[in-house]
Design goal:
Helix content: 40-55%
Number of helices: 15
Radius of gyration: 21 Å
Shape: globular
Length: about 375
């Protein structure tokens, strides 16, 4: 069988979200199924590390699909040509888009419907594209995978023509590298980033959906009430509409206690996360919320949003806040800061989640849905 895969999110410097999902699942699928040929379709030059085995054939078709006009061109003009040329039996796309101009069966992965619930967090042209074409993609695909029961219910609620039998859930997971940090690493990290002080951490690109401005307000309340030397580290690249956040940060009273690390590789991120006092992840909307699981695997207590998928993922192993209320976020920060026994209980409860979520299981579910698409 020849399996064509949309790999345009396998980017060497920015392997986030969709990219991590593709990397972890197809790294396994390709190696577990050497009898099949995989056509990896890139929209720009690729890194050789993404060619996981000898049964992978990389194909580059430009131009890079970076906005709606080029999305339409890439998926509906360029992709069908590649599928026909290599006689693909199935096309797998893990970014929520598929081709409307091919008869090749397709397996689609749709992570969430944030564009419906928070349209202001995307460019207007992108939202218009998503709203117009997502129902068509869902109808066109032979099988559809999403990353949580929350997202599955959301898809069925908003697109009533889609039969439940077409959808399956394949949870995301975390890499094995996310483990507790030893005391030497913790000391080195704190000396490098916080002058030896304890710190809260928030992981994710600086983007309105991640709620960075409310996090700053919450940290202000925490600092005023606790008179603590605690720091706040925000680990992630500057993504979209970050200018307002940076402008506020310049005038922020506790500016010296906030550290922006920028994008970090896996080793640096794991060491940083494992050294944190607690994770604060007040995201407004998530289809899964991988950083929450990463923190629990690093034995770091978690404060996250009482909305979307996070309660499904963390269950009783996290503290939950209202992400729209910075006082609610601050309250949970103060609770975990003052109650060491609670902090240890959260860490203990979080340890069990590594076994519940695994990329091996996710890859197997995706593989079954690829076979389902082929029929």
């Amino acid at each position: 069988m020849r399996i064509a895969v949309n790999t345009r999110f396998l980017l060497k410097e920015y392997l986030e979200g969709y990219g991590y999902f593709i990397y972890e699942t197809f790294n396994r699928i390709v190696r577990h199924h050497p009898e099949h040929e995989f056509i990896f379709i890139f929209d720009r030059p690729f890194d050789q590390k993404f060619i996981f085995a000898g049964n992978v054939k990389p194909v580059v078709i430009g131009p890079p699909a970076r906005h709606p006009i080029l999305w339409k061109f890439w998926y509906d003009v360029k992709i069908p040509v590649v599928l026909k040329k290599y006689k693909a039996d199935v096309f797998v796309s893990c970014d929520g888009f598929c081709s409307l101009r091919t008869d090749v069966p397709q397996c689609l992965v749709l992570h969430d419907l944030s564009f419906i619930h928070f349209p202001a967090f995307n460019k207007k042209s992108h939202v218009l594209f998503y709203k117009r074409y997502t129902p068509k993609f869902l109808e066109k695909a032979s099988s559809v995978v999403t990353v949580s029961e929350f997202s599955k219910k959301d898809i069925l609620l908003n697109f009533k023509k889609i039969p439940e039998s077409k959808l399956d859930v394949a949870f995301s997971a975390v890499k094995e590298i996310f483990q507790p940090a030893d005391e030497i690493i913790k000391k080195q990290v704190k000396e490098k980033y916080t002058n030896g002080k304890e710190f809260f951490i928030c992981i994710g690109a600086i983007h309105p959906r991640k709620n960075p401005e409310n996090l700053l307000k919450a940290f202000s309340v925490f600092k005023k009430r606790q008179q603590s030397n605690m720091k706040l580290l925000m680990a992630g690249r500057l993504a979209w509409k970050f200018e307002s956040f940076l402008d506020k940060l310049k005038r922020y009273k506790y500016r010296d206690d906030v550290v922006l690390t920028g994008y970090l590789d896996d080793v640096a991120l794991c060491n940083l996360l494992g050294s944190a006092y607690a994770m604060v992840y007040p995201s407004l909307f998530e289809g899964f919320g991988v950083p929450v699981l990463e923190a629990m695997c690093c034995e770091v207590p978690v404060i996250t949003s009482a909305k979307t998928s996070m309660q499904e993922i963390a269950q009783d192993a996290a503290l939950y806040c209202d992400p729209n209320d910075f006082n609610s976020i601050a309250e949970k920060m103060m609770v975990v800061y003052k109650d060491e026994n609670l902090r240890e209980k959260l860490i203990k409860k979080g340890k069990r989640f590594r076994e519940q979520f695994s990329w091996d299981r996710t890859a197997e579910i995706l593989w079954q849905n690829i076979l389902k698409a082929v029929g």
